[in-house]
Amino acid sequence: MALDANIVGLSGNKAEVDSGGRIETYMPAQVGTGALGALNAVVGPLVCDGDSTVTLDMRGTFSLTAQVQGTVDGTNWQAIPVRPVNVASVLYVAAITGTTAGTWIGQCAGYKKVRVIVTAYTSGSATAVLTSNNGAFMIDATTPTLGTNVGAAGAAVTLTLAAPGAGLRHYLTYLSINKFASALLTAGAAPVTVTTTNLPGSMAFSFEADAAAQGSMVRWREDFAYPLAASAQNTATTIVCPLTTSVIWRVTAGYYVAP
Questions:
Q1: Least confident window among 90-99, 103-112, 147-156, 183-192
Q2: Would you say residue 255 has pLDDT above 50?
Q3: 30-133 under CATH 1.10.150.120, yes or no
Q4: How distant is the alpha carbon of residue 40 from its chain centre?
Q5: Which of 68, 81, 239, 241: disulfide with 249, CB 3.0–4.6 Å?
Q6: Is residue 163 helix, strand or coil?
Q7: pLDDT tens-digit profile of 5-18?
Q8: Residue 202, CB half-sphere, CA atoms under 13 Å: how many?
Q9: Where are the domains of the chain?
Q10: What are phi and psi of 245, to 5 degrees?
Q11: Is residue 42 within 8 Å of residue 67, measured between CB atoms?
C-alpha cells in the first residue's frame, strides 16, 4: 500500500516519507501574525504543547514595549525571557523595548500556550509574527559577557555583576582570581578568604597565606562544565576579595543571563 507523503496523525504530528521510503515525523510550527499598535494588543495565543522554542519577529515603525508570555493554566501569564538574533547583543531581556525591528528567540518548553502582548505603548505599529516549534534550542552554550575588576596594592576589590532584569539570573561559565604580590609577603597563620554573594551556598575560596617574593602571583581559575546558576533572579552577584597587605587582586567572571 502506498503511503501518503504528507500524513497528519491524531496527535497533530506530520509524517513524511523520505527518498529511502522511511517515515519521519515532526510537529509543524504554530504560527500567529498580527499588528501590535496599541496598549494590550496581542498576537496569539498559540498552543505550544510539546514545543520547546518560541520566536518573535517584529517589523515596521513603532515605539513600544512588547513581552512574550507563556501560560500553564490558560489564565495566568508569565514572562518568557527572549534574546535577539543576528545583532550585537546576545543577552536575554524580559521585555522588548524601543523602536528597533528584529527577531527574538526564547524557550517555551512546559507551557500550554504562548503570546506576545504590548505592555507599554508610545506610537506606531509593529507587524508581528509569533511561532513555536520543537526545534532544538542550544544558544545558551556561550560566554557573551565578561566582568573584571582590579585593585591597588593593599586594597579590597569587589566584582559586581549587575542585576540582569526581571525573570533573569546570572550563569557563570568561568571564574578567575589572581593574587599578585606587590611587595615581599610574609607568611600568615590563616588563609585569605574570598567571599561571594548570590551564589549557591555562599560560595567562598581560600587562598594560601605563604611567604612570597615581590612580583609573584597565585592564579586560580575554574571553567564550569555546567554553568553555575546564581541563587536569585534579578539580583546582583558579587565576588569580594579582602584587603590584604601588599596584594593586588584581579577577579574576572564569564557569564550569560537567562531565566
A1: 90-99
A2: yes
A3: no
A4: 26
A5: 241
A6: coil
A7: 333 333 344 444 45
A8: 1
A9: 30-133, 145-258
A10: -55, 130
A11: no
Identify the CATH number of the domain defined by range 145-258.
Answer: 2.60.120
Residue of 36 and 83 predicted with greater confidence = 36
Query: Is 35:116 a contact under the CB 8 Å cutoff?
Result: no
149-153, long-range: CB < 8 A, 24+ apart: 149/250, 149/251, 150/248, 150/249, 150/250, 151/241, 151/248, 151/249, 151/250, 152/248, 153/182, 153/183, 153/246, 153/247, 153/248
Which residues make beta-bridge pairs with 137?
none
User: Which residues 6+ apart lie within 8 Å of 192 measured at CB?
Assistant: 179, 206, 207, 208, 209, 242, 244, 247
Indicate whether 151 pLDDT > 90: yes
- Distance of alpha carbon 252 from alpha carbon 111, whole angstroms: 36
| Residue 102 main-chain phi, psi, to 5 deg | 165, -170
Cell numbers found for residue 78: 508569565
Higher per-residue confidence, 222 vs 16? 222
Whether 215 has a pLDDT exceeding 70, the answer reads: yes
**pLDDT for 15:** 43
pLDDT tens-digit map of 56-76 = 999 999 999 999 999 999 999
The grid coordinates listed for 228 are 553555575
Q: How far is Cα 183 from Cα 245, in angstroms, rounded to an integer?
A: 9
Q: Which element (helix H / strand E) includes 118?
A: strand 113-133
Q: Same topology for domains 30-133 and 145-258, yes or no? A: yes
